[in-house]
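Interim report to the steering committee. The following record documents the input for Phosphate-binding protein PstS (348 residues).
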Amino acid sequence: MRLKQLISSLMVGAAAVMAFSSAAHAADMTGAGATFPYPIYAKWAEQYKATTGNGLNYQSVGSGAGIKQIKAKTVDFGASDAPLSAADLDAEGLMQFPAIMGGVVTVVNLDGIAPGQLKLTGPIVADIYLGKITKWNDQAIAVVNPGVKLPAEEITVVHRADGSGTSFLFTDFLSKTSPEFKTKVGAATAVKWVVGVGGKGNEGVAANVQRIKGSIGYVEWAYAKKNKMAHTQLKNKDGNFLQPDDEFFKAAAANAEWTKTPGFGVVLTDQAGKNSWPITGVSFILMHKVQQDANKGKEVVKFFDWAFKNGGQAATELDYVPMPANVVKLVQESWKANLKDASGKAIY
């Protein structure tokens, strides 16, 4: 009798361990990469866990580190604001899809200048980051800011110290509007900066700008709003000075040719249109086409599928732009076509 009870007890215990292990396994999603979308990924993860019981550990380490980690297969997905080329994706056996859109803004720390008061253009910002414009009352800045009392203060440039998709978007915009910047610095996730101090992540740049009087930096719009930073207006391709706004991020994405771009690798900087915010970006998710752990792969896809269907309000509240329905459909079709388990069976 005791033996039967012992066996029964052991079987119940084993079943409990297996159930716990299975639940932990399902919840153990890991991702790493871009700091640009971190606020919305964190919010989605919180809501998803409350809804499904499954969690997500997302490391906000920058796009460069995220790309390295997914290539090394140390995470279930990587995130980058700089799209990988079709050749890079094929070489690494990766697929890529867009998850969220938003805007990058320039932020300043200037006494007497209200948020959104200062106007800047691509060529002016490029010359500041090239070390050619060194004071806030420079004539080039004064010309586009009539009536604004500009301080005779030295400019401290703040940039990213890590490999960053936000840096890619920022340098891509400056390269499109300043031939000299394109030649001397160029557009990439990591560049050789001419002047300035570095900060790690959007968080690091924001902290440095808040700490240093007379500084300028670039961060994702949600970070600027959350930290009550003084953003600037920016002049777009059509010559209009705009304040950052969700509708202007949407306007920049309106004419994107998703179907004609391999791996959905659309870059939305310096788009034409009177209401197009000039530094609009897409954050991309990277996954291996062959999922060695099919359960993990399925869970990642379930998470983003849930986010597309249920995460729109949270995205809007944090000043991101949800992916349009027609793009979501293309992404779902891409999952079906590209994501397989080790035996070649589709996981979505």
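Residues 1-26 have pLDDT under 50 and may be disordered. The committee is asked to note this result when reviewing the revised timeline.
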